[in-house]
Amino acid sequence: MAFSLNDIIKQQVNSAAGGLEIPAALKNQVLGGLSDSILGSLTQTATKAGGINIIKDLFGGKTPVESSPVTQLAGNLFNTNVLKKLGLGAVLGTALTKLIPNILGGVTKVFKDQNGDGKVDMNDILIALGGSGIGKSVVTSVLGGLFKRR
After folding, report:
1. Which of 41, 68, 70, 102 is the most exposed place for a label (fewest CB within 10 A)?
2. What is the DSSP letter of 37?
3. Which residues neighbour 4 within 8 Å (Cβ) at sequence distance 6 or greater?
C-alpha cells in the first residue's frame, strides 16, 4: 500500500505529540500545523536551487536533523503560521517546536536504503512511498509524487 509523504509526517506528528497536553479545542489545528509546517519546509526546500540535495543529505543521514535547514524552516513556519495565531503560551509552544527535529528524524528513518545499493537516494524515497522510481522523470515522480497531499 502506497503512502504519501504527508501520511508519514502525520503519523510521526501524532506519535511525537502524544505525551503533550494540548487543549482539546486546538489539538487538530496544532497537529495539522506541525504536519503542514514540515511538509511546507520540505516542499519549499525542494523547489529552491540545491534543495533536493539538502533533502537527500537529510534523509541519507549526512546532515544531522537538528542542524538541517529543513528543520529550521519547519520551526519558523510553525512559529509564524501556528503558534503566533493560537496563543498557546511559551511553555507549550517551546515544547511543540522542540518536537520538530524528533518528527523529522522519524520521517527520515522511513527512507532507508530500500533497493540495497548501499545509499539513500530518490529511488529509495520513491520505493518507501510505494513506487518503483526507476525510469521516471524527476519532475513527475520526485516532486509530483513525493509531495502529493491526500
Report:
1. 102
2. H
3. 129, 148, 149, 150
